[in-house]
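tokens incoming
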């Protein structure tokens, strides 16, 4: 059947296409199926598509796929999706991707996810984001992670975040960081935390930081922590001296280590 005739078949006929039949469709025939009929393909039929066939589908096709249809794709198929097609997929469909599909996403695909799609990621999905994918996240994406999703990122994923991404954590998100996540932050990441973020983090978590992390603080961060009496004497003495203030002047009655 020609591509032109394929464009004329209805949903019932598309739904009747067996996986074996779909797997041998030409790219022209597949692209000829109307966007209105594409969501009639069964999950098994979609799972039978090869990479060339998937890439022959239009943005309109992907926009019409149901969450159940997207969930039927094999991890290897998800990894082969072009960024323009991934962006077109509904938020509901992204939120139903299983962990194997999330793992299959590539560093090239990750930045293309919309803020709405990212905001819909569950804690379970976030927990399997690999370090190489976390390194591809944008600051505009991390800022819309739910607190549950952020707290579920592995320590490897946290360490892989770019410093500008760490600086984009919101005051709503910062308190959700676990002690393990906080202690996994690199010196470079620590140096990008803003006073507002440090304030939101809270004294208990700040005081759990290692000496190496404390020594990564900038002058502005140290002065803020000291002035706000966030640290006790022991923690303040761990900070490098001579960075804009005298530590001895900070050891007053309000700082008890």
């Amino acid at each position: 059947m020609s591509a032109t005739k394929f464009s004329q078949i209805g949903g019932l006929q598309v739904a009747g296409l067996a996986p074996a039949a779909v797997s041998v469709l030409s790219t022209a025939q597949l692209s000829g199926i109307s966007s209105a009929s594409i969501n009639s393909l069964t999950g098994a039929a979609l799972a039978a598509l090869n990479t060339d066939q998937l890439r022959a589908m239009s943005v309109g096709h992907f926009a019409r796929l149901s969450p159940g249809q997207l969930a039927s794709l094999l991890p290897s198929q998800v990894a082969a999706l072009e960024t323009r097609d991934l962006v077109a997929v509904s938020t509901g469909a992204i939120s139903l991707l299983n962990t194997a599909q999330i793992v299959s996403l590539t560093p090239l695909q990750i930045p293309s996810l919309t803020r709405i799609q990212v905001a819909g990621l569950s804690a379970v999905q976030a927990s399997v984001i690999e370090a190489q994918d976390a390194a591809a996240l944008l600051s505009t994406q991390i800022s819309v992670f739910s607190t549950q999703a952020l707290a579920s990122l592995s320590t490897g994923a946290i360490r892989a975040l770019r410093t500008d991404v760490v600086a984009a954590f919101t005051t709503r998100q910062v308190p959700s960081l676990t002690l393990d996540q906080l202690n996994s932050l690199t010196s470079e990441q620590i140096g990008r935390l803003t006073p507002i973020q440090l304030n939101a983090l809270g004294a208990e978590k700040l005081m759990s930081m290692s000496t190496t992390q404390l020594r990564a603080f900038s002058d502005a961060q140290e002065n803020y922590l000291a002035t706000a009496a966030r640290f006790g004497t022991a923690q303040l003495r761990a900070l490098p001296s001579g960075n804009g203030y005298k530590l001895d002047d900070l050891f007053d009655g309000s700082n008890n280590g």
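note: Residues 1-91 form one domain.
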